[in-house]
Amino acid sequence: MTVVVVGGSLSGLFHAIVLKHLGHNVHVLEKSSQTLLESQAAGLNAGPDVQKLIDLYIKSETPYGMPGALVEIVDREGVVINSFPPNATTNLTTWRILYNILKSHLLGEATTLATYETEKLVGEVNYDGEMVSVSYTDIKTGVSDVRHADLVIAADGGHSSIREGVIPDSSPEYVGYVTWRGAVPEPLLCEASRSFLSNRVFMLRAEHGFILSYHVPSDNGSLKPGECQFIWAWYEKLDEHSDDFNENFTDISGKRHFTTVPRGKMQPKVWEKRQECGNSLNPPFAELLEKTSDPFVSAIRERQSPKSVFYDGKLLLVGDAFALFRPHLGSSTNQAAMQALGLAEVLEGRSDLVAWERKSVEYAMKTAALGNAYGEYCFTGKVPDSISAAIRPDESYT
Ligand SMILES: Cc1cc2nc3c(=O)[nH]c(=O)nc-3n(C[C@H](O)[C@H](O)[C@H](O)COP(=O)(O)OP(=O)(O)OC[C@H]3O[C@@H](n4cnc5c(N)ncnc54)[C@H](O)[C@@H]3O)c2cc1C
């Protein structure tokens, strides 16, 4: 088969690798440049299906992440007031590490054809009853072209235009909070902060939300002590129609962003205000903010899709294009790997697309409900009934 994968982030790469291993010719079309892709990357959780896919297809034994520990809730004095185990096996890494492993594997073996092209913006995707045609424009030259495929994988993310084409009015909805994020290399922190934050996952309630910290390898994949980095993410409730929201999402050149103001584009006055808020945190968190050189901010949005299979099974929605979650379980990348592994079973004749779609929908519904429950607990300290077996309310909760 000839397969076109729209979107060259993690879902696109998982699917491209699986399809290539099954002997298909795979063409990945990605709209962003390599530089732009890297400007939004921070830490992420690679769940159990990511590990399974890497074991099965890449067979690399080199560790690429750090095992997720208990999430410990601390107060402003750094005293642990509660903790809960991760929802599933976790492996804390970065988008860039995973992206580099996957992309070099996809392009590294010359068994069948795989191409990966950046700065190719996909427009229309049409079906004539036999083949699917994918129209795209080369962003650098402005030249448009069409590729015909037996199968199209729509891995074009949470704001998927392909999903909008097959499920109209399905754009993601703002959930009422934003996340500020950054990374700090280990050597930049003082000894006290380093030893406090190392190999632990912390959460501290802060103004209008909470902040998380975790420890991951360096972006070139080093796990050596002293070469790793700390990631932080500060979730803050913010009215989408407020002046603050508008200011936060307007970048240094005056451009208003819908979802993310990328690294290097945040207005200095916006970041100074956030750093001032950081002074009220406990010292290690305050230092993380102080030492962050390239923060970025994203509006959290969510969206479920009732279907993942279209055009007689020749167009599949995967990853965030299929279901976009709040980030509290860190399951988005796992969802993508789970769908890619499931597609391999379909193509090998061990399952079918009806079962694949059902499993995708069930996973997404369950993950969204669970993630929302964890999110509620993180913001308030109150534990929703659905997760009361895993977590007890914070003592300070009244
Ligand atoms: C650059 C980048 C960095 C990220 N960093 C993090 C992180 O640090 N932590 C984290 O938890 N999550 C991160 N994510 C999100 C994470 O990758 C996803 O939540 C999850 O892995 C599922 O990935 P996805 O491939 O389905 O969606 P996405 O990762 O959103 O990828 C969608 C891809 O499709 C491309 N695309 C969209 N429309 C078109 C089009 N019309 N034509 C061609 N290409 C198109 C986008 O440029 C993007 O590369 C990042 C995503 C990106 C794109």
UniProtKB/TrEMBL annotation:
Domain Pyridine nucleotide-disulphide oxidoreductase N-terminal positions: 3-37
TM spans (from-to): none
Domain of life: Eukaryota
Residue ranges constituting the 2,6-dihydroxypyridine 3-monooxygenase substrate binding domain according to the UniProt record: 174-301
PANTHER family reported for this sequence: MONOOXYGENASE-LIKE (PTHR47469), OS06G0597600 PROTEIN (PTHR47469:SF2)
Protein name (Swiss-Prot/TrEMBL): 2,6-dihydroxypyridine 3-monooxygenase
Organism: Lachnellula suecica
